[in-house]
Amino acid sequence: MSLDLNPAPASQIVHITITYAQSKMVDVSTNSPLIDLFLRKVKMSLSELTWINYAHDLKVFFTVLGQPLEEINRKSCLHFMEQQDQAGLSSLTINRRLAAVSSMFTELNLIDPERFPQNPVAPLQRNKQARRRSQSLYRPQPQRVPDIISEKDLQLFFAQLPTWRDRVLILLMWISCLRISEAVSIGFQDIECSNRSIRIRHSKGNLERVVYMDRYTFAALNKYLDEERRDLFPAVEEIFVSFKGVARGQPLSVNALQHAIDYYATKAGLSLHAHLFRHTGITSLVMQGMSESALRKLVGHRNVNSLLPYLHLGDRYVALEFEKAQNVFSPTSTLHMQVPGGEQ
Description:
The protein is mainly α. The protein has helices at residues 33-45, 48-65, 74-86, 91-111, 151-158, 164-174, 180-184, 215-229, 254-267, 274-287, 292-299, 308-311, 315-325, 331-334; strands spanning 16-21, 24-30, 191-192, 197-200, 209-212.
């Protein structure tokens, strides 16, 4: 079957349709063959999560602008940014949506450079070294210290969880530092009991890796399988399933787990979201001195700078570490000096 890459009529506004099954996106289609081709390329070459995010972000972009693809320019993107800002969206969200648009136009330039000579978000230049950051539309955003959940709040939250299934999922996101999409997609074939490991096959950037469970998480997983999952739904390969409602017997969805986290957090008087558990776990491993290379491999980070936000762990932690270092490095012992006031 040949693919029709002829341009849509100049007056044709882009429409994107997303199809769901059991609260999970399973398909996306548009009235633009070029955008369809781009999304197919993303699905084949990047992770499923990236494909889902790009589809949703492009849908928002074209819904806001209501323009044909060929008419999108820098002014259009500026208008989109203004609309998103007025709607209260954060710089992080706006930049993420612009990144989807930028990636699309980079691909379109490769397919048809005459019709799409420029990327309106980040103008293309032949000499990459000459590219100036000021030419891109991305909004500056401060490097934030990742939020973490306090020990007290973790205790309050766990006290609300009624099932071993939910406890295991939270432990996997916290202790094993999994993303929510990675946790719900674990299958029986991914578990290696002998070393309490999990092979993560559906990861961001298609970066397959192995993660590990501590003894408590592994025991909780066995408790869930023995007392709740038992021999139910033998045809379902995913470990975590829904037990109630219209989705009973279906693999648990990201959306369902997000709603559960929100519900039990509210009951505990807290405001939490799924990624906070992963942030908390990564921060704990950094503070315990796990090497950066091993930690990056564990959590699925390719970029050597990806852990920098986690290294800014707050003044109190730095002060404690400094105090500990004085046991080894001290001018009173090195220089044989007496501390003012008489202390050695």
